Amino acid sequence: MKFVSFVFCLCVGFAGIAQAQLPPIFEASRAKDAQTEATVRRFLSPVKILWQTGTVQNAERLLKVGNGQADLSGQGMCSLKSDANGKPSLLLDFGRELHGGLQIVTGQWRESKPITVRIRFGESASEAMADIEPKQNATNDHAIRDMTVQVPWLGKLEIGNTGFRFVRIDLVDGNTELLLKELRAIFVFRDIPYLGSFRSSDQLLNQIWATGAYTVHLNMQDYLWDGIKRDRLVWVGDMHPEVSTINAVFGANEVVPKSLDLARDITPLPGWMNGISTYSMWWILIHKDWYLHNGNLAYLKEQQPYLVKLVDMLIAKIDDKNSEKLDGTRFLDWPSSENQKGIHAGLQAMMAMSLNAAGDISRILSDPATARKCDQAVARLKQYVPDPNQSKQGASLLALSGLMPAEKANRDVLAVGGAQNFSTFYGYYMLQAQAKAGDYKGALANIRQFWGGMLALGATTFWEDFNLDWVKNAGRIDELVPEGKKDIHGDCGAYCYIGFRHSLAHGWASGPTPWLTEHVLGIKVVEPGCKAIKIEPHLEDLTFAEGTFPTPYGIVKVKHTKLASGKIQTEVSGPKEVRIIR
């Protein structure tokens, strides 16, 4: 804001100068077309030289805080020299997953001509070391992460736009010395405060909450993406857990309606958003949740014309046996994609959930006719309950939709094997179904085992998918894979995310963050716009839990302490506009 104000004042100050002297962008006819970014850029130096080869001197120079400016001092430069020892390379670790690129500041070498280098970005150390080849599926899909470029003599180059933690630089030219003053990450993100918080007696849960929040924060770019390396797209189903996290951590942010509206505007009916029927249904569910948390009735009204037609389209997909007959891509998530019976159960449940939400929205918008159609359709859908076929995805949706008792879904399917057969996306709904069944103890155990399992392997963001079967004899992502160990990134993955194509910063994996806020802190919004919030904590084995929650009126603070008697002592404070129910 200060920079914008400065530019504005500068323009006003120039008003007395002949208009022809101003850059064209400041002309009134052009300024209205200028676009801005919601993100900012910050520069971070690497924290570690993870590996090097060849003739490299003074590599530690690159770990120092830089200023982005080439200079004539020539002192203490990092030198990479190609000679009889071969061509040198460095692998840098920036300490955590970032979105952005790399700034290279150079010194002055013997001849004033560019030098060719190869830059590889990686979400894991091994990905930054990999070639673009089919064996482990390293790719340049969606974001170029492996490139050969020329760097200037005594200058600066900025390259890259991807998700990464590690960067490898190779000197390509022979018989050459490259002098580097700085190699800094360009960190691109929305500069917004973390209004929500979570802290408990379990440090692992605290780290999991924060990691989920950070994962979504990185994906809040121009639009709300699914992943910062891949796919970098607005996938509406992926958005549902992301928006739940945003509601719990950041509160209202324009990236959500902007992304919802994009999905609507590029999907004229009778098309399905992203070509997937469930994703159009998630669009409805997100709108209900967004209104509940933020209370923006005018925005909800804007959705009514599209919603009414979508409701009619959904109802037409119920056959005379009250079973869904959805077309388009029949998809819940990737790990369940081969279980057709489980998908059928999930689709039946999604129909009931989304039409129930559409009915609630229609009542809010004073449309009793549409609300009545939704209620009648939901009643029909509840007359037919498919077998989830041991699909934890299908069982969780059946429980959440009310088509199956949550206790039965949990006992027969969800609790079987603990976190085995969990998934990063639908893990959120598995946890929600376990909470509905009252199995908070089991849900917390699954969070610790499944999401904690990624952290144990060096993750600083949560992954597109994770399977407990991958863990056996696996190396960490923040080290070069030791001899005899499995590469958890390059050797694992499935479906569209085989090997290094696997995204290690995927927003749909953030479910534990809103879950811990809702069920451990016990904060549940019960009236639109957070006018009323119910506090009902479930500490289980925790001795305390405390945190904050964003509302349109300010922050609600809660603190729960387990007394020696086992009773929970609760302290709550918040804005006067928010009614607290206990």
Give a written overview of the molecule.
It contains 16 helices and 16 strands. The protein has helices at about 1-15, 30, 125-130, 205-220, 235-250, 255-265, 275-295, 295-300, 305-315, 340-365, 370-380, 390-400, 405-415, 425-435, 440-455, 510-520, and strands spanning about 40-45, 50-55, 55, 80, 90-105, 115-120, 145-150, 155-170, 175-190, 195-200, 525, 530-535, 545-550, 555-560, 570-575, 580. Strands 1, 2, 3, 4, 5, 6, 7, 8 and 9 form a 9-stranded antiparallel sheet that branches. A 4-stranded antiparallel sheet has the order 10-13-14-15. It starts with a helix and ends with a strand.
Task: Tag the structure with descriptive keywords.
582 residues; alpha+beta; nine-stranded antiparallel β-sheet; four-stranded antiparallel β-sheet; 16 helices; 33% helix
Summarize the topology:
Blueprint: H1 2-13, H2 28-31, E1 40-44, E2 48-53, E3 55-57, E4 78-81, E5 89-106, E6 115-122, H3 125-129, E7 146-151, E8 156-171, E9 177-189, E10 197-200, H4 203-219, H5 236-249, H6 255-265, H7 277-294, H8 297-302, H9 304-315, H10 340-364, H11 368-381, H12 392-401, H13 406-414, H14 427-436, H15 440-456, H16 512-520, E11 523-527, E12 532-535, E13 544-551, E14 554-562, E15 568-573, E16 579-581
Parallel strand pairs: 12-16
Antiparallel strand pairs: 1-9, 2-5, 3-4, 4-9, 5-8, 5-9, 6-7, 6-8, 10-13, 11-12, 13-14, 14-15
In brief, what are we looking at here?
The chain is α+β, with helices and mostly antiparallel strands. It contains 16 helices and 16 strands.
Largest pleated sheet: 9 strands, antiparallel
Task: List low-pLDDT spans.
Answer: 1-19
Share of β-strand residues = 15-25%
Can you count the beta strands?
Answer: 16
The N- and C-terminal alpha carbons lie at a distance of 40 Å
Question: If you compute it from the alpha carbons, what radius of gyration comes out, rounded to the nearest whole angstrom?
Answer: 26 Å
* Number of separate helices: 16
Helix fraction bin: 25-40%
Average per-residue pLDDT, rounded, comes to: 95
Coarse structural class: alpha+beta
| Molecular shape | globular
